[in-house]
Design a protein that fits this description.
It is a single chain. About 20% of the residues lie in helices and about 35% in strands. It is α+β, with helices and mostly antiparallel strands. A hairpin with an 8-residue loop joins strand 13 and strand 14. It is globular and about 60 Å long. It starts with a helix and ends with a strand.
Length: about 250
């Protein structure tokens, strides 16, 4: 959680005195390094890209948790500390497991080597789980890896946030005749995730296509493949995220 480095950062810049109800606090990667390098030696205690990676509520440093804060990138090497709810719950899927018969007429062997998010997602796609969940046989893999956002703005509460050129990454994106499906994948149980991981790609690809954008969260748990579909009811509101539907699949090869 890197609570000690962030305590040093807050002390150096007197962030605790900032009025977060009025506006976010802007901080640069250089400022983070300047505040930590004299007292800390480990890379994960100095580097902004690591200190600012707070992907779940529990990953936040103590000073963030105590003050109901979260952090967002807004430009290359520039971040803002924001007051409010930055995360969305990933609820348990209590539905009966849906037995899915793979659409392949042969058994995949190479996909069983290892335990990465990408291979589980690729196996789910190859078996047509993604197409089945989205009810769209036209979906094909077209997006993968890191890209940079165009300029866009949105609100967190009453505060206006402007983003430009922030690096994003989706584990996989699929395009069909009428829709684009973006997926954030994990290979272990996740209780909550920072909304940014779903919202930034959603806003990014909304500016590149007029097709409907769908955002999914994916997990593999034991022999089951789990999918959550989230939607943003207002593309300009970070906290307008809602759970649309879920399903738990088991694949029969």
């Amino acid at each position: 959680m890197n609570s000690a480095p962030w305590k040093a950062i807050f002390n150096k810049y007197e962030i605790g005195k900032h009025n977060f109800n009025k506006e976010p606090f802007i901080i640069t990667a250089q400022q983070i390094r300047d505040a930590t390098r004299q007292h800390f030696k480990k890379t994960n205690e100095i580097e902004a890209r690591i200190l600012c990676k707070q992907d779940s509520r529990e990953n936040r440093p103590d000073v963030f948790i105590e003050n109901n804060l979260f952090i967002l990138p807004v430009k290359n090497k520039i971040y803002i500390i924001v007051k409010g709810e930055g995360y969305v719950d990933i609820p348990l899927i209590k539905n009966t497991v849906a037995i899915h018969k793979s659409k392949l007429d042969f058994r995949l062997e190479t996909s069983k080597i290892g335990n990465s998010e990408m291979q589980h997602l690729d196996f789910a796609y190859a078996s047509s789980i993604i197409r089945t969940f989205m009810n769209d046989d036209s979906l094909v893999l077209t997006i993968r890896g890191r890209k940079y956002t165009p300029q866009f703005s949105f609100n967190v509460g009453k505060q206006l946030i402007e983003v430009d050129g922030v690096q994003t990454e989706v584990d996989a994106g699929y395009e069909g005749k009428n829709k684009v499906v973006l997926i954030e994948a994990k290979n272990s149980k996740t209780d909550n995730v920072i909304i940014r991981q779903l919202f930034y790609p959603f806003r990014q690809w909304s500016q590149h296509t007029k097709k409907d954008i769908f955002t999914l969260f994916f997990e593999k748990q034991l022999d089951n493949y789990l999918l959550w579909q989230f939607q943003f009811t207002d593309k300009n509101d970070y906290n307008s995220i809602q759970l649309a539907k879920t399903c738990k699949f088991q694949i029969l090869e």
